[in-house]
């Protein structure tokens, strides 16, 4: 055995020596049979026996060396889209390789082939968890851009021909902490994105309920129970949105988050004013539509009745069964509530 030979050259030499050994071993068997045939004592070939032992010894290292290199080369040829379905197989196989490498005889651990073999296994073992992370659905183009900038390698993941080889060549294992942080951030961003989508969907469907008031045969007042429910849901949604907006992982969603916060905050303000205006109206109506005050102050009573018609028929009744957010964004409603509120507060002071 000659130490210090380059691993790939050693593999070629070992292959040739095995072939030569097989030739000599077959000759030995033929000689052995001939010696038996003629009753001759068996000739001993100590060098051949020693060569057999050495070849078997070296085969432990170089057979594994070749197997590992060929297997990893096969993995590198996978299309990136195929990698997720092979992850578990790669994980279990690389563990087998690692265990076999650790059990290698002590004498062989000084050979260059052993060091190269060990490095191949360790590099892939370190890269594998990162491949698992990068294959998750939370990884978006913006995250790949971050990985490209980190490694300085072009990673055209959108290409149908993008292969695992490109990621391995990017030496991900040299940036374990940074890549892990990118993937963790992607997971948190996906949670934010999904929750924002849920809240957006919810408030594209939530609607007011309206009911009639006294003798009116049409819906003209907000349903108190439903309003309280909506206000509670708005408070909960705004708390979640503000919490997400404060997270460092929310940067890609800042604009939609802030837009949603603004829309729901404004809706909450409008509902609060609307409820107050409605309470003014319902409390004053009996005062100005009947009894002594209506007779004593006919002009004020007429103004109040006119404002009721504007408020209940002209605007509020048109919004019945309306969706909460679009309804609160209605220009007519936003303009009318302050006017009605001011008029009815003035009427209350009369």
From TrEMBL:
Q: Is Cytoplasm included in the keywords of this UniProt record?
A: yes
Gene Ontology annotations for the cellular component aspect, listed alphabetically: axonemal dynein complex; microtubule
Give the matching Pfam families: DHC_N2 (PF08393)
Which keywords label this protein? ATP-binding, Cell projection, Cilium, Coiled coil, Cytoplasm, Cytoskeleton, Dynein, Microtubule, Motor protein, Nucleotide-binding
Provide any one GO MF term from the record.
dynein intermediate chain binding
Chief subcellular location: cytoplasm
Q: Which residues cross the membrane?
A: none
Q: InterPro entries from the xrefs? A: DHC (IPR026983), Dynein_2_N (IPR042222), Dynein_heavy_linker (IPR013602)
Q: Which Gene3D superfamilies match?
A: 1.10.287.2620, Dynein heavy chain, N-terminal domain 2
Can you cite a GO biological process for this protein?
Answer: microtubule-based movement
Tell me where it resides.
Answer: Cytoplasm, Cytoskeleton, Cilium axoneme
Positions in coiled-coil regions: none
Boundaries of every Dynein heavy chain linker domain copy: 48-338
Which family does the UniProt entry place this protein in? Belongs to the dynein heavy chain family.
Q: What is this protein called?
A: Axonemal dynein heavy chain, putative
**The organism of origin for this protein:** Perkinsus marinus (strain ATCC 50983 / TXsc)
Upper classification of the source organism reads: Eukaryota, Sar, Alveolata, Perkinsozoa, Perkinsea
């Amino acid at each position: 055995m000659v130490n210090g030979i380059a691993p790939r050259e050693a593999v070629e030499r070992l292959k040739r020596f095995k072939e030569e050994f097989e030739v000599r071993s077959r000759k030995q068997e033929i000689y052995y049979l001939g010696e038996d045939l003629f009753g001759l004592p068996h000739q001993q070939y100590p060098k051949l026996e020693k060569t057999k032992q050495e070849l078997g010894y070296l085969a432990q290292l170089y057979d594994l060396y070749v197997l590992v290199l060929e297997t990893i080369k096969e993995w590198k040829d996978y299309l990136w889209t195929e990698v997720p379905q092979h992850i578990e197989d790669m994980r279990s196989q690389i563990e087998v390789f690692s265990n076999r490498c650790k059990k290698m005889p002590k004498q062989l651990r000084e050979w260059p082939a052993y060091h190269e073999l060990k490095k191949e296994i360790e590099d892939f073992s370190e890269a594998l968890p990162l491949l698992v992370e990068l294959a998750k659905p939370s990884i978006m183009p913006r995250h790949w851009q971050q990985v490209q900038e980190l490694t300085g390698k072009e990673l055209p993941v959108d290409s149908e021909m993008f292969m695992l080889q490109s990621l391995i060549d990017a030496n991900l294992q040299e940036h374990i902490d940074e890549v892990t942080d990118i993937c963790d951030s992607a997971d948190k961003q996906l949670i934010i994105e999904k929750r924002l989508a849920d809240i957006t969907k919810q408030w594209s469907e939530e609607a007011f309920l309206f009911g009639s008031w006294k003798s009116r045969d049409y819906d003209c007042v907000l349903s108190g129970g439903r309003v309280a429910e909506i206000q509670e849901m708005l408070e909960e949604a705004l708390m979640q949105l503000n919490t997400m907006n404060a997270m460092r992982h929310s940067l890609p969603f800042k604009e939609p988050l802030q837009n949603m916060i603004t829309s729901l905050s404004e809706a909450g303000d409008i509902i609060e004013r609307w409820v107050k205006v409605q309470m003014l109206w319902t409390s004053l109506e009996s005062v100005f539509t009947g009894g002594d005050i209506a007779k004593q102050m006919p002009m004020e009573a007429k103004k109040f009745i006119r404002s009721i018609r504007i408020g209940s028929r002209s605007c509020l009744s048109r919004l019945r069964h309306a969706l909460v957010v679009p309804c609160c964004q209605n220009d007519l409603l936003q303009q009318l509530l302050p006017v009605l509120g001011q008029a009815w507060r003035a009427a209350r002071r009369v």
